[in-house]
Target: Transmembrane channel-like protein
Amino acid sequence: MAQPLALVLDVPEPTGDGDLEPSPYEESEVHDSFHQLIQEQSLRVAEEGLELLPLVPGRGHQTLPRPEGAQVHSSATLRILASMPSRTIGRSRGAIISQYYNRTVRLRHRSSRPLLGSVARSARPSLRQYDLELDHTVLEEDEKRSLLVKELQGLPMAQRDHMVRNMPLSLGEKRWLREKSWSPKGNRRDQQGRGRAISCCRRLRYACILALHSLGLMLLSGLYAARPWRYALKQIGGQFGSSVLSYFLFLKTLLAFNALMLLPLLAFLVGVQAAFPPDPSGPVPAFSGLELLTGGGSFTHTVMYYGYYSNTTLSQPCGSPRESGQCSPRLGSLPYDMPLAYLFTVGAAFFITCITLVYSMSHSFGESYRVGSTKGIHALTVFCTWDYKVTQKRASRVQQDSICTQLKELLAEWQLRERPQSACGQLWQVAMLGLGWLLCLGATVGCAVAVLTFSEVMIQRPTAGGQGVELLALPLVVSVLNLGASYLFRGLATLERHESPVLEVYMAICRSLILKMAVLGVLGYHWLARRVAKLQAPCWEDFVGQELYRFLVVDFIFMLLDSLFGELVWRLISEKKLKRRQKPEFDIARNVLDLIYGQTLTWLGVLFSPLLPAVQILRLLLMFYVKKASLMANCQAPRRPWLASHMSTVFLTLLCFPSFLGAAVFLCYAVWQVKPSSTCGPFRTLNTMYEAGTVWVHRLERAGSGASWLPWLHHVLVENTFFLFLVSALLLAVIYLNIQVVKGQRKVIRLLKEQIRNEGEDKVFLINRLHSVYEEGERSRPGRTQEEPCNPSHHDPTRRDLDLRSPQDPAVE
Model:
């Protein structure tokens, strides 16, 4: 049992008028040490287990035990330390209650009750006129509580709950305030309402509302549980680290980009044409199953490809021989210009994707490069990372693995910075790096030449009806070259023996990116230059769309084969034949470049196949599950853990500039320069796809002056190249300014850290200097003896002493 609270203040007895207020010097004598500041919070001290015990006669002044090696400062030094802002104990509950009482009064606009301005203090209360009995303070605090409860009762329920929730009080006090502030009128109304009988209609309405609410909650929980990354991302990050996790986060980002691009295409292009289908120009072949690989056959006569879309305004009947075969009298009166909708919908989808991509890249750059340093976060990771809200064993295990992997990555990065490298080792690494780059560039040139030669062979060799398996020859050759070159680059990286795993991944990404961009450049020339000249009569846009579909399908098949033979078979051979417990590592560079390659193919084919983003979404979802299963079963964590703090930013940058920019140039060339097919598609009667906007503008000019501002807007925004250059310059300026702002923030943070460190050293120096000056002054005083202890609060018979100790202190017994 704790002893009753005994409070004895060490205050000098006044010699003059007792009504006079103590002087500042006399009050400073009360604050003779930092330990005595706990007197001001005596109630809180009693709650925390500390007791104010009376002094035992003959024991003299006793202080709290000090840690070993701690420096004992003088009375003046302790007074200065006690007055520092960092030594302030905090705000009392009375001040908090007074502040919120004043706030509620201001909210209710009542001027009849006075404000408790004299009670609200921002820091610890003063000891002037400090009463030895605590009853007055307790009564004053209870009065302030009652006033606050009365004011809370006058507020609306939502505002009252919000204010109580934001009060810096304990949960028990918040619960007490919420219970006491509940209005008695509301309670009586509730009791009266409970006594009345509820009608059947009201019961039915309540039942319907509850059923709809439960159904909505079930749908939300189902959508949350259907996400493929709901639990997998935490598990992957905990077991394999942030480097492997960055691949799956990038895949998730690509899913969002494709969904964002697919929405306007479905709403304004595919959905409208599916609602008003054109008359078939010929017999539709039956579905054979081979279309899933080749993309031809019955898929050609659907909204999947460019040639299915009509070139008419859907509100006009067939009246022109130029539009024969593509107009239907069933279209009704919907004024919808399909060529214009096709051009502007694809352009708007690309513009939205561009804005989203630039914003994501700048945001990721700011998040990953704002601080850019891992110094000093090891202790933060150890002591502050655990989430105490986790209660399930499975979730706690995942969090434990995540913290362990994060510590490994931090320590590996610190060891890498501390590890020196000799001059001979650096020279050898530079020589191997140069040789590796020569071999990589030679392999890239060889692959590009091979693709160009094989594409010429495919052009000279006609296909039987254009629906055979031989159409898969070019995608197969390209996928084999990409896979073989990626393994060659991986072997060269092993020979180079990079000290930093981050540098090794960046090198592999750069080499694979150069290879894939070179191959895609050759394919773009093959599709828009030679195929257009070869296919004059057929619909070359459909052929390009089918070719891009085949590339996506074959690339996905090779990904499955690589996961099966490159990871599963190698794990079985290593475990069964070689008797090793060593699994292959997850190749981040090759898998990320496969994602960028597939997304580039999707952007290249949007103009010729509006549903290609839907195919890419399905491909990414299947790839997520396949890669996750293969990673968990066949791969191990990186042998050299490393912190992937900037990988997401690098991936988005590569996706933006080489990939999206190249696809935008490809499509702009197709829209502005290439002549469309004359037998299919919405632009069959035009010289270029771009002329659809010009024809629409001329039609508006002939319609009258009511829409004269639309041609002017089209001329300023579309035909004038200044607007395009202005938008491009603004995007580049935003990126540049964001980079400079982040650099400035990093510099300011570094300077502030250095200033904090210098100020800490200054404080130590000033305290030591002050202590030495005070000791010199004490020695120089006449009448002082060396035997007299320099105690900040030595025993004085004219004073009453305060002894502050814990009841567990052995000195008490």
